[in-house]
Amino acid sequence: MTESRAGFRSPAKDAGVTVAEMADAREAGYDDGFKEGKAEGYAAGLAEGQAELTQKMDIEMTKIRQLIQAMQHPFQDYRQDLVSELKTLATDICATFLHHQVSQDQALLEYLVDESVQQLLPTDHQIVIHVNQHNSEVVQNALANHMDESGWRVQLNNKLSDGNVFLESGHSRVKINLPELLDQYIKQLKDNA
Known about the structure:
The protein folds into two domains: about 20-105; about 105-190, hypothetical protein PF0899 fold, CATH 3.30.2320. The protein is built from five helices and four strands, in the order αααβαβββα. The protein has helices spanning about 10-15, 20-105, 105-120, 135-145, 180-190, and strands spanning about 125-130, 150-155, 165-170, 170-175. Strands 2-1-3-4 form a four-stranded mixed β-sheet. β1 (about 125-130), α4 (about 135-145) and β2 form a beta-alpha-beta unit. α2 (about 20-105) packs antiparallel against α5 (about 180-190). The protein is rod-shaped and about 150 Å long. About 10% of the residues are buried.
């Protein structure tokens, strides 16, 4: 009677599903949904976290690269300046040393006078050498090696600086300018440095 009253029917007879089965199905659906949601959420969260981390790492790497470039740039400038200054210092020391050595040891001047006399020989004219007092002895020694004293004459000229010598014979003239030769040599050193 109850079953037919007011149009109610017993769910147990029609449905064939019990409340316990419905609860189990609901719980299984909940568990499946939870597992799927958890897996999807984990994958989505992981992907989002990795993307965010990659973006942050790119920003940090850019900052590090900029910092390294900023640090290297001044050092490169200083390095170039240092190399340039060291080259200048080395050539200046070389120039000072060469000028000192040439003024102390007159062997180079003697050699150049020997070579100049060779250019003027043989000659029918007397060789006249214009030289200052300081260099006259060196020049006389060099000339004595090539000819007797009647073939040459030393003309003292105190206006000439050390290392400047002129040799004349008839229409030929040879000029020795040792400081100028040294300066040219040092300029070549600087240009090649």
